[in-house]
């Protein structure tokens, strides 16, 4: 390269760099003045936290949200009977404190005193026979076969009467 070309480049670079200069720090100086104007040693107080309020679940006796709702046609809805009702003086059995849907039949036993079904649920395996009660709707065991336990529950019809609802607990076969 020749000297005039070098001089041209140097002068061009000097001209460009001269545009970067100047005393345009007014915004930074204003911010620094604002920070310095604040009182020293002032710390904002800690925010007050609200105390924890415990929540008690009140919907435990309602239908599970994971089961489809039961469609009831008002015209074909069975009417309950006022003659059929649970015995309020009967002593409740242990398995009546649990939802009947939690139980599954796992086997049967038979001896001289009769036939028994083995029901798994409520924290263990329980032996039941015809006439025993289980579930929260006064479910009475009416029959025990090799493949299922038949139960009749008493459920309110919503109009002051009671309906007998048959149910069965099928044998769960382990694979």
TrEMBL record:
The keyword Nucleus does not apply. It comes from the Bacteria. PROSITE patterns: PROKAR_LIPOPROTEIN. Keywords: Signal. The keyword Translocase does not apply. InterPro entries: PilP. Pfam families: PilP. Residues 1-26 form the signal peptide. This is Pilus assembly protein PilP. It comes from Pseudomonas typographi.
